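Methods: example folding runs. The two proteins below were folded one after another, and each record is reproduced exactly as written to the output file, sequence line first and structure-token line second.
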Amino acid sequence: MDFDRLLGLDLAMALPVPQVTSEVAALVRKRHQDRRARRWDAADSIRDRITDMGLEVRDDRPGTTVLPWPAWKHDDGNIASSADVSSRLDETPDLDFTVAIVARRGCEELQRCVSSALAWLGDAGEVIVVDNGFPEECEPVTDKIGEAAEHLRFFRADHFLGSAAGRNVALRQARGRYVVLLDTSVEVTGDLFAALRPLLEDETVGVAGRWGVVTDDMRSFKETESAGDVDAVEGYLMAFRRDVLREAGLLDEKFRFYRHLDLDFSYAIRSCGYRAVIDTDLPVKRHDHVEWLATPPAERERLSKRNFYRFLRKWGGREEFTAPRR
């Protein structure tokens, strides 16, 4: 066994390690039972509790292993939750745009996305980058990004906070009048910010982007290539006014996996009476999505379904969303 392994179930016996409390050991045993019984929601809830204790949870074929976070992740500049950063949303915006880029993996993809955004943003705003638990081998890359630009601010999480929580770090710190959530799979190829401005100045519009989906029944969503109103803007690029964010609220941090988080946020904004629109001429290019490719198919299917059921429980019974779109 690895010298720093704290606890493994159904593995070779090891001497007790003092750092493992009886509470953690009991949680790991219960999670192991839940996983065997395919009680996935219960198992994920326990994982989140252990993570909140500052421990890393790893699953393999024999069972669950708990490890201490590597020492390099515990310096004073790291954050452990979105609440570790103060909110600036009640302050008067002093920039035009805040571009929020959050990543868990994909060093080259992060570099490409950040560089392309900065190239076209100029002095119109800032870029906030959140390292949402990047692997250690990417630390030199993220350090370089953090020191690279005058208009860039950098936050490093000491573990994966969850997809929504990682984005909330950037949203809480946004100084711009307009906020752009940009996925690392997207490359800015032209003056995106000039193109977004007239969309966001329309007070009937709550959220805008390049890609969007429509639905007739809130059960089946399909991507559309027609510009105009959609039921939800896809998370590759979501832009909104700061005052809309304050009204709709931050992202729901129960969405730890990214799938359908964009549906939930789009519907939260639409529930405030705003429209969701896309412009298919926005100057951006979409590349492979590293989070999707890195997640095993069975796992991403399970996590996607769980998020979709959460979305339906929140919005499926609302009459304004079941009526035909105008």
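Second run, written to the same file directly after the first:
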Amino acid sequence: MSCENGFVNTIVKAIDGKKGKDIMVLDIGGLTTLTNYFVIATGGSNKNVQAICDEVEEKMAELGARMWTKEGYDSGEWILLNYDDVIVHIFQAEPREFYKLEHIWKDAPQVDIDDLLVED
């Protein structure tokens, strides 16, 4: 399943550009009214998680996207960015393994992002 959401595409490219790993996009719109997409990624350290977050914020601001909520930035273990239609979760490896959002939302279709991660 591919994604026609420009915000998701921008977020995935921003995460990849800052060396985010294990990027996953879940289409949860059919399962909840909370949001339409979760973007989940892993950073290598708290500084890397923060750098990924900063890059996502910068790229989304360039699109004029409104961020509703930002949580967890200071610790850099799990940062949540809420853009209403898309919620971004940037984890370090241990918290990601502990919370297992992919498992909690296992009924959500996974969006194919391979085309977004191809070098231009």
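Comment on the second run: The mean pLDDT is 93.
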